[in-house]
Amino acid sequence: MSFQAFKLHNLFHTTRKPTSNLVKISPILEMARENSPYIHIERTLLIIKPDIINYADKIEELILQKGFLIIQKRRVHLTPEQASEFYAEHYGKIFYATLIAYISSGPIEVLVIARENAISILRELIGPQNAFKAKATAPESLRAIYGTDDQQNGIHASDSFTSAEKEIRFFFPDMVVAPISVRLAAKDYLVRNVNPTLLKGLTELCKQKPKDPVLWLADWLLENNPNKPHPIDMVTS
């Protein structure tokens, strides 16, 4: 096997070490719309609060069904001091002490999720802050389904890009939260220059059924690379 084939073989076999926070990373190009030259993928923060933590799996499934990607998540139990820091903007308000006691009463599930217009779409999905109002005006929202009252509403979500940036950094300090611009030119490039050769290789792979399919495909791609220089094109020194 040539050194180039060996490198390509390793590329196809590349894996990532699992981490407790990394859940799902999907190619952003899959979210690109055909009628838009580019889209902005926003990241936002979602917290499943202590009283409905047992419904976390169902809520995450719904989030995925609504077109969000779960980028990272973690389950933590905030101390009252940590909760006070997170909700510092509410300090001095009449509900502040109750809020801190509530959010620090048990473990919470914290998720960073992403999609186009993630912040506004998630806010609509969770419904009004007061669970009573949510039940009356948005009965299918998450707060209507899982919330109890204006305090124990079950769900927290960032209300702006500024809030999302601050809140994500609170739980995931190393994460980049700026919107991602994705141009369809990248998708077009793959369609024109990669897919035709790759599909031919995969078709031939299915016919041959080699013992090591990845190594076979790596060698086939190197051998059938349409951009491979011919001897007449090569420059010798």
From TrEMBL:
It comes from the Eukaryota. InterPro entries: Dpy-30_motif, NDK-like_dom, NDK-like_dom_sf, Nucleoside_diP_kinase. GO terms for biological process: cilium movement; CTP biosynthetic process; GTP biosynthetic process; negative regulation of oxidative stress-induced intrinsic apoptotic signaling pathway; UTP biosynthetic process. Gene3D superfamilies: cAMP-dependent protein kinase regulatory subunit, dimerization-anchoring domain, Nucleoside diphosphate kinase-like domain. PROSITE patterns: NDPK_LIKE. Residues 41-179 form the Nucleoside diphosphate kinase-like domain. GO terms for molecular function: hydrolase activity; nucleoside diphosphate kinase activity. It is found in: Cell projection, Cilium. The keyword GTP-binding does not apply. It holds the Pfam family NDK. GO terms for cellular component: cilium. Keywords: Cell projection, Developmental protein, Hydrolase. The keyword Hydrolase applies. Belongs to the NDK family. This is Nucleoside diphosphate kinase homolog 5.
